[in-house]
């Protein structure tokens, strides 16, 4: 008989496998590994940012949350996902995943896009606000960047540039127990940034493997708890 635990585990495993397959040819990946004070007691990395260059004026961006030490780090709310774009661009075509989440999580949606300040990580020229906090949180979002104003990108690693504080990506993080249950709420909420130390083409396979192993380790601990 399939247990409730098995249902959650299957969903998370499918999300991990699907992301790994989808990103097998990704161009540039980095870790959200620098927390602000609010979530610093919890071990990172808190998530991953993947940039895939489609052509010189188009890039696909994917934010994926991480599972560490029995906690899953979800995205959402104000300044939910943030980029410091090299040049100018618009963001559109958002798709979301809420795998491994239960208890009535509501659908996420975008409510605002534009420049803004991210607590502990400085100003970004593209911050994206999502509707109404933890109840609408998600573990994965993919969207398209389209260059504007004559901006072009020579490579995936050229799409972003560090801001004045040294960060080129960040996210609003909700810390909650794995699997995520809406009614349990968040243990803490804060921001994590990526400090420009991305992994270009040659290192992406090792990072994907590390992500998969981290997720599987969390699944194993959950099954035997």
How would you explain this protein's 3D organization?
The protein is built from two helices and 15 strands. The protein is of the alpha+beta class. It has one domain (4-224). Strands 2, 5, 6, 7, 10, 11, 13 and 15 form an eight-stranded antiparallel sheet that branches. Strands 1-3-4-12-8 form a five-stranded antiparallel sheet, with no helix packed on it. It is globular. Mean pLDDT is 85; it is low at 19-26 and 200-206.
Percent helix, as a range, is: 10-25%
Order of helices and strands: HEEEEEEEEEEEEEEEH
Q: Cα-atom Rg, whole angstroms?
A: 17 Å
The profile of the biggest β sheet is: 8 strands, antiparallel
Number of strands: 15
Give the strand content: 35-45%
Number of domains: 1
Mean pLDDT: 85
What distinguishing features does this structure have?
225 residues, 5-stranded antiparallel beta sheet, 2 helices, alpha+beta
Briefly say what this structure is.
The protein has 225 residues and is α+β, with helices and mostly antiparallel strands.
Topology:
Elements: H1 4-22, E1 28-32, E2 34-35, E3 47-55, E4 58-65, E5 67-68, E6 71-75, E7 81-83, E8 88-97, E9 101-102, E10 110-118, E11 122-130, E12 140-148, E13 169-177, E14 180-181, E15 188-194, H2 204-224
Parallel strand pairs: 9-14
Antiparallel strand pairs: 1-3, 2-15, 3-4, 4-12, 5-6, 6-13, 7-11, 7-13, 8-12, 10-11, 13-15
